[in-house]
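pasting for the record
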Amino acid sequence: MDAASTRVEEQLVEGLSDLRYEDLDADTVIYCKQLLMDTLGVAFPGSLAPGCGELVDLVRHWVTPEGAPVLLHGFRTAPPQAALANSTMMHALDFDDTLDASALHAMVTALPAALAAAAVRGPVSGRDLITALVMGTDVTARISLGIHQPLSWIRTATCGTFGAAAAAARILGLKGERLADAFGIAYSQTAGNAQGLIEGRLVKRMQPGFAAAAGVTAALLAQQGITGSRRFLTGRYGYYRLYENDAFDPQPVVAALGRHFHIKDLSIKPYPCCRMTHSSIDAALDLRRALADPAAIQRVAVTASEMVTTMVGKPFEPGDNPQVDAQFSIPYTVACALLQGDVFLPDFTEEAIDRPAILDLADNVTVTADNRLPAKDLFQATVTVHAADHAPLSRQITLPRGNPGNPLDYDQCREKFTKCLAYSRLPVFEARRDELLRCLQQLETLDDIGRLLALLQP
């Protein structure tokens, strides 16, 4: 290991300790607010998803007026538990942002951690919240970008633990040694395996919440003077060696630190399912417009990277949690796109998943790995449709919709927020929609984010 890599931790801490709102460029601030709108928007339908009600009922047992708010439910609980519940609602439908280059979600750990820490600190300004979110997502992204190998751990959770600690630490005003301690303590709690994903278990949607809770706990312990390991990334038993087989490059972790903020590299998702399905969906939707009769489709062939094929390319077989199975299935989502020309929240109810026409086509979608693609490529997919009434049609996607290189604009994001809220049928929040959106647009002018949080309580 070279000398530069042994100092990754120090560079990360030194480069971000004194981050201020004034250090952020205008585009970073604007996009942070757009991502905040997106993450809160998907929490509305997420709050009704399987597993979320049960989790909220559990953390309700630990109600305390000095706690942090559980959004949309009108009570406060211990800050780590609030972070767990809020993160799970934001992530449950897999409709939150992604860092495509690393196949992870970033706001879903940083935002719940920042909100929980804000309840401990007291009044927090909109500018402080924006700065914490930029810092938290930057840490998550940077640590993930240093990794070479395809997914083995859920990096939303493993890398997100550090990002959550960074966001909470920024809210609490921790710098230097205390920030380093927060990272080291967070590493002691890092977890997030992919077994729940490949088995389609509800716990998969809670893993970012565990990371958010760990980050809050780490920052609060560091504030109390508890010390954490310093070589949390590069040590003998550090993250990269223990979790990622020492297959990492330190350069992306610290490149342009404090100058380029990776929040601007996050994608906003147009479809409520795993990002690894999106290029295939985009291709299928393009093909749908070229098909005279979608009902004439006989079979569909999809090629993608090894990682995508492994994670979301297996034959579609609904299990105990069919919503999760459908969210993580190229065969299912491609069948929806081809037969109906859209993929949105109604497609992931148990009733919708059981539609015979969709299931029949999904059974005839095969996904194979294209060994010419980088093993952990998330961007590229090719879909070929074989139909009875014409020659095979193919469409290749090299960059999915919502990526900053193929972005959703503000109006499209606002439409997504509105559709999510309407789908949720939560009249008290629908009545506040315009006020909520104005508050988010003007976030940097708020002296206290309590105004925003009040709009997110019944």
